Amino acid sequence: MRHKDPHPPVERLVLTDVMAALSDPLRIGVVRLLADERERTFGEFDAPVAKSTLSHHLRTLRAAGVTRTREEGTRCYVRLRRADLEARFPGLLDAVLAAAGRDAVGDRIRLQAEG
């Protein structure tokens, strides 16, 4: 389902929504992969779940304001909203990423091997 603007503006990001979105190891894995500031396509993610389940997780991150999705033709591109999260909740994303890296949270999701 396509929405006109499914991305909440920075001033409407809610801490509990962001924390809920970051409460799942698979979603943490997606955020860790997006932390390199690159925009990724849906198909680049290699996750141990069905595509429909991965899609649900990506929608959850988008709805909470953690990611931004851009549609181009039949492709969807996703990017971490690092600057927006930092502006609204200074230090939160860096703390989550550091803890996730230290504790190997989200390690089961990877990027597809390149060609």
Automatic annotation (TrEMBL):
One Pfam family per UniProt: HTH_20
InterPro entries associated with the record: ArsR-like_HTH (IPR011991), HTH_ArsR_DNA-bd_dom (IPR001845), HTH_MetalResp_TranReg (IPR051081), WH-like_DNA-bd_sf (IPR036388), WH_DNA-bd_sf (IPR036390)
Matches recorded under SMART domains: HTH_ARSR
Domain annotation HTH arsR-type: ranges: 7-100
Keyword Metal-binding: no
The keyword Magnesium appears for this protein: no
Keywords for this protein: DNA-binding, Transcription, Transcription regulation
Domain of life from the UniProt record: Bacteria
GO molecular function: DNA binding; DNA-binding transcription factor activity
Protein name from the UniProt record: DNA-binding transcriptional ArsR family regulator
Record organism: Saccharothrix tamanrassetensis
